[in-house]
Amino acid sequence: MAPTLSNAEENDAKTLKPVSAFDSITDETARSVAIFEETGKVLQHPRCLNCHPKGDSPLQGMEMKVHVPPVSRGESNFGMPGMTCNTCHGPANVDVPAQAETIKSIPGNPNWHVAPIEMAWVGKSLAEICVQIKDENRNGGKTLAELVEHMAKDDLVGWGWNPGEGREPAPGTQAEFGALYEAWAATGAHCPAS
Fold first, then answer.
1. pLDDT (tens digit, 9 = 90+) per residue, 97-146?
2. Which residue of 5, 30, 163, 171 is most buried, as measured by CB atoms within 10 A?
């Protein structure tokens, strides 16, 4: 059974601290690590992890269950021939009222797909995710500046804060997350030790 969170802890898990909350940390490396740990609330949230699975099937819901109907990433991470992601996922979220108690909408984005396997985060510590994110061989070839832009502005990343009816959004906002990510990069992009 999962531990019960207090209201304050529950609220903290759903919000992001502003960059200014880390100004009192005078050591730049320690400030960088603390900022990245705050971004971990998003990076390790099911909204992100569901699309960054360690296997070939995306996950669904806060429980991170295997995608139903069964699908596979395929060669290009857009599904298999005959069952590509856009077979069910259109360019925008679609509300499906009165379909089922547990299904309120179908997620959508013009670029809907599962993250490449080298970008898998499920089962990894925040320290491992940090190292992976900075590795251009495992982050889609992005520089640190391109990563900041991706996290702060990419509309598929932004879907995590607008996931459609019946889904819990990622903590904070994409703008807050982007500001933290930019501050992390500006302070040396240091990773947690473990």
1. 877 777 899 999 999 999 999 999 999 999 999 999 999 999 999 999 99
2. 171
Q: If DSSP codes are grouped into helix, strand and coil, which group holds residue 178?
A: helix
Whole-Å CA distances, 25 to 13, 28, 32, 172, 183 = 21, 7, 9, 22, 13
pLDDT at 55: 93
Tokens coding 69: 């109907």
| Encoded tokens for 90 | 């259109």
Rounded to 5 degrees, φ, ψ at 80 are: -95, 155
Q: Enter the pTM of the model.
A: 0.91
Q: Is 60 helix (H, G, I), strand (E, B) or coil?
A: strand
Q: Identify any residues that bridge with 82 across adjacent strands, giving them in sequence order.
A: none
Cβ-based neighbour number of residue 20 at 10 Å:
9
